[in-house]
Amino acid sequence: VPGPWLYGVFAVIAPVVAIEGRFLSALGRSAALTKGYRWPCLFYLLSVAIIVVSLNVPLALLTGILASLLAPLGATLSALLALLAFLILFALFLPIAALAAPVLYVRLRELKDDPA
């Protein structure tokens, strides 16, 4: 399964670039950090994605209900208000997904680079 495996290999490219400032060697550094932990990295990132999606599905349903309740205001206005409500609520869960790779990077640094 090369696609998911490659995702595990390159799971921490963004933190390597942002924290270590490695631009050209970010692919190699990510591969080095994830070596031996690629499948656990992939499963961690998939679990975070499942959590975020499972939190957003009820939000989508609630905003659909909101749009139907606001239907007397007009289709366009009710859809815009429901979309605005969804985006505000979605922003509450966005940090969960945004922190997945940096948390993984820190853990891999502890496992790989820590001399203790």
Textual characterization of the structure:
Helices cover 82% and strands 0% of the residues. The chain is an all-alpha fold and 116 residues long. Helix 1 crosses helix 4, helix 2 packs across helix 3 and helix 4 (38-69) packs antiparallel against helix 5. The longest helix has 32 residues, at 38-69. The chain is elongated and about 65 Å long.
Summarize the topology.
Elements: H1 2-9, H2 13-20, H3 26-34, H4 38-69, H5 75-98, H6 100-113
Helix pairs in contact: 1-4, 2-3, 4-5
Can you give me a brief rundown of this structure?
By secondary structure, this protein is an all-alpha fold.
List keywords for this structure.
mainly alpha, elongated
Give the biggest beta sheet: none
Distance from first to last alpha carbon: 34 Å
Query: What proportion of the residues form beta strands (DSSP E)?
Result: under 5%
Number of H/I helices: 6
Helix-and-strand structural type: mainly alpha
Shape: elongated
Order of helices and strands: HHHHHH
Average pLDDT taken over every residue: 88
